[in-house]
Amino acid sequence: MKATQLLHNLGQSLWLDNITRDLLDNGTLEKYINEFSVTGLTSNPTIFDQAIQKSSAYDGAIRKKLQEGKSGEPLFFELALEDLTRAADLFRPAHDKTNGVDGWVSLEVSPLLAYDTASTIAAAKELSARAARPNLFIKIPGTKEGLPAIEEAIFSGVPINVTLLFSREHYLAAAEAFLRGIERRINAGLNPGIGSVASLFVSRWDTAIKDKVPAELRNKLGIAIAMRTYKAYRSLLGTPRWQRIYNAGARPQRLLWASTGTKDPSASDILYVKTLAAPFTVNTMPEATLKALAGYTEMGTILPEDGGDCEEVLSQFAKAGVDVEALAAELQSEGAKSFTKSWNELMGVIKSKTEALGKGAD
Questions:
Q1: Mean pLDDT across 294-310
Q2: CB neighbour list of residue 94: distance below 8 Å, 6 or more residues apart
Q3: Active site residues
């Protein structure tokens, strides 16, 4: 049995961290659903930047939208929504079968809004309404400014993928924002069954300190942070406050492992997948990692609910001079800047494509 099926049987959702029109047009995404147990999909500005830049699959749609007088950001969101609604429809059977637990796709609001709460709320509501799919998450960063937007969006009934989380503390803040939004819905007499995931970025920790710690600590920090966060997640789900909202009809906000592609060529190609095998979580992985995983027929041990030896490992990093709290803040800030950079590059690609295709239509 493929390791992808083994993880699915364990109770972990496998999502693809990629979307291109070619994947949709040539049936590859459908193949991943049928053969690799893929039950969801995530996207971000970098993914769309690469997809549109490296493929002619979007050219016809861009020409059509140019003729309709569209350009820039509005044109991009139309392309993205076309792709993601098609993907959402492919995952709709999984969504229906699991009563809304699985089968989700994700679209990010403009990263330029990362520190603008009001604009983030407005964009999240608009994109969700335009998609008109029950299984589409809007991605909002779990920055200080993003947290009120997450609460308000959840209260408004918009399913949210909280992105750019890097630590237990980041996760707990995102979970609190989700919980406040759900509690407000309950108090207002509204249906509390609004979906959400909290995305913890894993591999970027190891990339950030790879040349700053002893060899025996390489590729261990991201996993230790994930284990610490998983312990907090499982503990939180069992608290009376959370159990009250479940009793009112709410669904848990699932923890999602993001950035799970192996960056170190000397490490296992499924390092962050096999180590973070855990029920009631999601692992969204790059296409190369998914294909590699499908080549395995066994997995390792299940992630312990109590965090295992994570605190002991983290104490070793502290002795090596790694300030986890400071690095988490730095990684979140850098992540926001990186998404902004990718967004600006994406807008540049849209501009150059529209200019070239516009001339071709003359």
A1: 93
A2: 33, 39, 40, 102, 103
A3: 139
Render the burial of 75-95: b for 16+ CB within 10 Å, e for the rest. bbbbbbbebbbbbbebbeebb
The candidate with the shortest Cα–Cα distance to 170, out of 212, 125, 202, is 202
What would you report as the CA-atom Rg of the chain, rounded to the nearest whole angstrom? 20
Query: What's the pLDDT at 14?
Result: 98
- Distance (Å, rounded) from C-alpha 144 to C-alpha 137? 20
Per the CB < 8 A criterion, the answer to whether 161 and 256 are in contact is: yes
CA neighbor of 295 nearest in space, from 29, 23, 36, 18: 36
Other CB atoms closer than 10 Å to residue 321's CB: what's the count? 9
DSSP E strand boundaries for the chain: 13-16, 38-41, 105-108, 136-141, 160-165, 196-201, 254-258, 281-285
d(CA 94, CA 121): 28
Query: Could you give the percent of the chain with pLDDT greater than 70?
Result: 99
Q: Are 195 and 248 in contact (CB under 8 A)?
A: no
Which residues on neighbouring strands pair with residue 163, listed in sequence order? Answer: 141
Q: Is the pTM of this model over 0.85?
A: yes
- How many alpha carbons lie under 13 Å from residue 53 in its C-beta half-sphere? 13
**pLDDT band (50, 70, 90) for residue 361:** very low
Residue 166's identity, in one-letter code, is F
Q: Which has the closest alpha carbon to 135: 175, 178, 101, 182?
A: 101
How large is the average pLDDT for residues 239-243? 96
Query: What are the tokens at 239?
Result: 């608290």
Report the distance separating Cα 189 and Cα 296, nearest Å: 48
